[in-house]
Amino acid sequence: MRIVLLGAPGSGKGTQSELLVKAYGVPHISTGDLLRDAVAKGTELGRRAKAAMDAGKLVDDATVLGMIRERLSQTDAAKGFILDGFPRNIAQAEALERMLGELRKPLEAVVLMNVDMGVLFKRLTGRRICQDCGRVFNVNTSPGTPVHRPESGDESHLIQRPDDQEAVIGKRLEVYEAQTKPLIKHYQAAGLLRVVNADADRDAVFESIRRAVAGEVRASAGRA
Q1: Is 88 a catalytic residue?
Q2: Is 2 an active-site residue?
Q3: I want to staple 196 with a disulfide (CB 3.0 to 4.6 A). Which of 122, 160, 208, 210 is the partner?
């Protein structure tokens, strides 16, 4: 399995990645996690990334690709990988294709987790995180959320992340739409795109992704 997961914030990429890791035994490679880990370890690439972030700039593509290359060299990635958070634009997609070609690990599929934007907005604005145990809940879809208690037994302290507030969510979804539409066309043309309906229960979405990865879902001509 060598795939890219495309999906807007709140589409369930994290949840499905966990299931895919267990089922296929390949690592979930999140570029956000790679950046945080490299910065924490103080690697050469991490220092370059930190300098950019400290200056309020985006980390350059060469640095991110370098981190992905290093991660793919680890033994657990020998059987494949699930790439999440990269590419975000056509230039990155082309650079990734060249790098994977050099490593002889070309992509097998790009899975677009398709969810209506209205549903995504409701999911994200309803998301709350317990400060004590770190679990994530949703006040719109989980009626029992207010009575959640962490392992300590104390009353929970559920908070809303600043980037889950309505104004920020709207902007995040706009940016995602603008960035992702060109990628959809790019991967359609390459015959790699698979579209799954991510507005379903967890197990149904996983089965759709499994079928897409197995080639049972053909390349789509557009969004599902």
Answers
A1: yes
A2: no
A3: 208
